[in-house]
Amino acid sequence: MRVVLAEDSVLLREGLIRLLGSAGMHVVAAAADAGELLRAVDEHEPDLVVTDVRMPPSHTDEGLRAALVLRRQRPTLAILVLSQYVEERYATQLLSTATSGIGYLLKDRVADVTEFLDALRRVAAGGTALDPEVVAQLLLRRHSDPLDRLTRREREVLSLIAEGRSNAGIAEALVISESAVGKHINNIFTKLDLSGADKDHRRVLAVLRFLKV
Amino acid sequence: MTSTELTTPWERISAHWSARTWLRTAHLVTGLAVALPGAAVILGLVAAAVMLVWTVVVPVVALLLLFGVVRLLTRLQRSRFSAFLGTDIPPVPPRRLSRNPLRRLAEEARTWSAWRRLSYHLLTPLINGMGAVTVVGVWSGGLVTAAFAVRTWTAGETWHTAAFVLVSGVLLVIGPWLARGFTLLDVIAAEALLGPSVSDQLVRRVETLRESRAEVVDAADAERRRIERDLHDGTQQRLVSLAMNLGMARATLTDLPEPAHQVIVQAHEEAKLALKELRDFVRGLHPAVLNDQGLDAALSGLAARAPLPVRLDVDMPERVSPTVEAVAFFVVSEALTNIAKHAQASEAEVTVGRRDGRLQLAVFDDGLGGADPSRGSGLRGLAQRVGSVDGILIVDSPVGGPTTIRVELPCA
Fold it and tell me: Which residues form the Signal transduction histidine kinase subgroup 3 dimerisation and phosphoacceptor domain (chain B) (predicted)?
């Protein structure tokens, strides 16, 4: 897998290159600011972009804006945004482009190496990786709507779907059986009036409704 | 008016007729020369305005001229005080006046200091007139009697000579005292009437205080942002890197002896905890999203994090100053924390809008009420922060609820 990395802290950049390398990913270019990132993507055509939000020269949300630009130019490019703080606003901006091949994680998650690499692979494969903290923010915000009808467990399941986990992943996270997860998901679909035929499609719709994007 | 210490009798006597005495005399004489025509012009203009009041135009022109004359005379008097006495009459803070003559007239007429100056120019002919006549009279009297003394002495009239010498001596001695007394009177009148009044001084003081306070508040705010940036660019990245390396060690070095592995696991967990604590701290310092995307985005993050449902309505078409944004953010953050801690509310509502150049902010909750800014440091801290930018904080919180906190912040 070919990765372009954008991170202005040299220390962290080198660490990430080593981490990704150890997982068999190939970092083809490492950029220190948003302009460099855009050029590197043009040049190397990577499978995945990992970018910081705050980068020089303005040290504001440059990385995020670069991600949105890349998303518009190449809708199939997988992008993982890392941020010191996760803000719902950034998440909704990112997700408004599409919900596949998108990740938005707190930088701290890098420390949990296996989970982080897992999220990376999920995003690269066209899945989603939303930070639990963002999901929690969004969950707390949505109260007076059909989501109210969900039980606590169903809500937990839905937020894990929103994080981008598979049924097996959800079962593992909640320490329940996979068939129980399937049951919960069916209940969620019913309660959210999602009675379509295609299961994966309904999954995305449920997440979209959940995130209100 | 100050004088150095005089010790010997000769120094006292010579000081009596020193340069300062002659300058004082000159001050009084020129004072009369300036003040008499000045007062005449003032009285003439007033008389013209009163007598021709029915023409409307004449009084307006006369009064405009009057204020102009007053300004001119004031400048002249100031230069006189500084030339002869070395006394600087402090200037009245200037006001910006309208170009429209009628409005300008009204503005001038409303300013108290213009009338004070006018009264000085009417009063000073009396002081200077009396002073000049008396002092010049005493000096000449002294010289004339001295001349008589010489004459009587040449004529051999010893008794007369003694009397004239005595009178002349007394006159020449009291001359400087009189000059000093009258100039002192003039200085007192000028400082009281030409200088800034107490309210002028207070106005100026308030202005400088407001400016310096705004600078202090802005500086403190900039400092918070700088600390946030430094921590973000330095310490936080370093900690992430450390935690990542420990995470890698934990994941790969599985064949280490158990105690060593335990140490790595512990260090990893500690690093992650430190990272989280630092993150919470830095976010409280100054949220980056507030800089990047403004109040709306920062507040929605706050509302989302609050442990109770918060309805948020932000109507701010354009950004306001970073300091005001920071205060508004702080108010909502603190208010929501208070609500979560004490109010036992089931929901809260935050509205932010801009009206008449002021940011209007309201935080409502349906909780227990009874919040009182005079107790509890949270609300007092809010009031202080709001006060630091001349904002207003109103807390309406009857016992039993609900509670509304209203804040108005100037945006200019």
Answer: 223-290
**A51: closest CA among A18, A21, A94?**
A94
**Complex ipTM:** 0.75
Check CB contact under 8 Å for A108 and B279: yes
pLDDT for residue B14 is more than 80? no
- Which among B244, B250, B282, B285 is the top mutation candidate for probing chain A, defined by the most A β-carbons within 10 Å of its own β-carbon? B244
Which chain A residue shows the shortest CA-CA distance from B277? A108
In a domain, B199, yes or no: no
CA distance A92 to A90: 6
Confidence class of residue B180 from pLDDT cuts 50, 70 and 90?
confident
Q: Are residues A95 and A51 in the same domain?
A: yes
**A136 and A150 part of one domain:** no
Instruction: Judge if B135 and B23 occupy the same domain.
Output: yes
pTM of the full predicted structure? 0.63
Distance from the Cα of B393 to chain A's closest Cα (Å) equals 27
Residue among B243, B291, B305 minimizing CB distance to A111: B243
Is B38 part of any domain?
Answer: yes
CA pair distance A26, B125, nearest whole angstrom: 96
CA distance A15 to chain B (A): 7
User: Are residues A66 and A159 both part of a single domain?
Assistant: no
- Strand pairing report for A128-130 and B310-315: unpaired
